Amino acid sequence: MTLLTIENLRKSFGGLKAVDGLSFSVQQGEVLGLLGPNGSGKTTAMNLVSGALKADSGSVRLGSHELVGLPSYKIARLGVARTFQLVRVLGGMTCSENVQAGMAFRAEPSFGSDAAREALQLLELVGLRHAADIPAGDMTYIDQKRLELARALALQPKLLLLDEWLAGLNPTELQVGIELIRQLRAQGLTVILIEHVMDAVRSLCDRCVVMFAGAKLAEGETSQVLSQEEVITAYLGAPHA
């Protein structure tokens, strides 16, 4: 079943076409890789889906719901959650409070003792149970990324957008992160993954969409897409073929 449908999506900044007629769909329970070189429009596309930016034209549908034109908090309540390429945590609040803040924006908000208990469960899931009462601003960058994921999961999303969430992890942390995403997928979560770590892309992604200069360059099953000459030329480079 198709969960997300993007049709002819466009966003320009002055004369720069950041997203130029982008179209693709995502199936429920799928992990889709959104790839491309820096500046190709991947994060802008994710911002359009999540409501962080308003599209100039085109359509983004989550099931039967049109998302274009909706504010980000309404999109979150419909079931879209995300992490950011540059981590955004509430530094003056504890890790537990950060996660509980996410629960206020889901379809059925949770507060008080119930929210606190669930926050601990989500922190345990991402390996931060021990840090529940530590201010988020005191955490390492990698742990802040884990916290941001826990906060996104607190929204109980149907669709999770991960913007280079695995970037910067050491080899051991990377394997833990890959396994966590597999676990989320096994629970029925649909994921769009922006990632430059090709081992993770090959391990996790059923299909990939490759962007170049704001437009879709290629789409298909992961191994086939990554072997296409135009993709290698535009993004991966011969050593990664």
Descriptive notes:
The protein has 241 residues and is an alpha/beta fold. It has nine helices and ten strands. The strands form two sheets. It has a six-stranded mixed β-sheet, with helices on both faces. A four-stranded antiparallel β-sheet has the order 2-1-4-5, covered by helices on one side. The longest helix has 16 residues, at 171-186. The chain is globular, with a radius of gyration of 18 Å.
Give short descriptive properties of this protein.
241 residues, alpha/beta, six-stranded mixed sheet, four-stranded antiparallel sheet, 9 helices, globular
In short:
With 241 residues, the protein is an alpha/beta fold. Helix content is 37%, strand content 26%.
**Into which percent range does the helicity of residues fall?**
25-40%
Query: Which parts are unreliable, with pLDDT below 50 for 5 consecutive residues or more?
Result: none
The SSE string, one letter per element, is EEEHEEHEHHHEHEHEEHH
Q: What structural category characterises the helix and strand content? A: alpha/beta
> How is the largest sheet built, in terms of strand order?
6-7-8-3-9-10
- Let me know the largest β-sheet: 6 strands, mixed
Spatial separation of the terminal alpha carbons = 32 Å
> What value does the average pLDDT take?
92
Rg over alpha carbons: 18 Å
Can you count the helices?
9
Task: Tally the beta strands.
Answer: 10
Give the overall form: globular
Q: What percent strand? A: 25-35%
